[in-house]
Amino acid sequence: MLLRDGAKNADVARQFNIPLGTISYWKHVDRAKRGECPGRIPPQCPRCDGALDLPAYSYLLGLYLGDGHIIQNRAMRSPSLSITCADAHPGLMDECEKAMRSVFPGNSVCRVRRKGCHEVKLYSMHLWCLFPQHGPGKKHDRRIALELWQQDIVDAHPWEFIRGLIHSDGCRITNWTTRIVAGERKRYEYPRYFFTNKSDDIRKLFTDTLDKVGVGWTTLARGSDPFDISVARKASVALMDTHVGPKH
Q1: 198 φ, ψ to 5°?
Q2: Is the pTM of this model over 0.85?
Q3: CATH top class, domain 167-243
Q4: Which range, of 12-16, 31-35, 75-79, 209-213, averages the lowest pLDDT?
């Protein structure tokens, strides 16, 4: 109301201790919605104002919990979401970008080159609405829990969530062993999935979702730290191959 009554942006910013750029953005959005200034209306919030692509969001949430981060750069008006994707998996990079565009259809997505990888990135004022798990510090140093509306989405689209977690912090490998058959040692190979994350909470989100889709799993300790979740049973691996598959 202060801005509508003619108060200066700088005065409102000082009064409420809010960055001047944020005040200017809010004023522009308000005027644009009421048709009082030229230019397009900034993108709406996919969750609050629009129809959220639920399968794409479930996948993107898994990617974010694994290899994603949100930063608020003082030089930029909007916070940014970045998902780090290894150059060795260009198909994964494409899937990540596709999910971002589906969840945020009104925003631009770009790729930022880093050593051995790219950051798939977008800017949006609505990231806090979609990823309330954001907070200061590393994810494994703080509590990570899904909001009820997020859990409803994961329950409705569990395989997309599992795919996102595997594509970020997991892998599909081929193990081998030897056995003596008729006096001759033979080599046997078998596929296996791993998920590795230091956060107890994120590992539990992963294993709880595996339980719901009927995938058996075990915990493997790295030294004294139980960071690795293994899926090795034949039937469970077959399920994972059907719905997840290796990175590409």
Answers
A1: -75, -20
A2: no
A3: alpha beta
A4: 31-35
Contact between residue 61 and residue 164 where contact means Cβ atoms under 8 Å apart: yes
Distance CA 64, CA 46 (A): 17
Q: Where are the domains of the chain?
A: 1-42, 167-243
pLDDT of 115 above 70: yes
- What is the rounded CA–CA span in Å between residue 13 and residue 1? 13
Q: Which amino acid is at 233?
A: R
Pinpoint the alpha helices (H) of 17-147: 20-33, 54-67, 90-103, 127-130
| Of residues 16 and 168, more confidently modeled | 168
> Cα separations (Å) of 56 from 25, 98, 196?
28, 8, 22
Torsion over CA: 39, 42, 44, 46 (sign): positive
What local confidence, expressed as pLDDT, does residue 176 receive? 78
AA identity, residue 90: P
Q: Give the per-residue pLDDT at 38.
A: 52
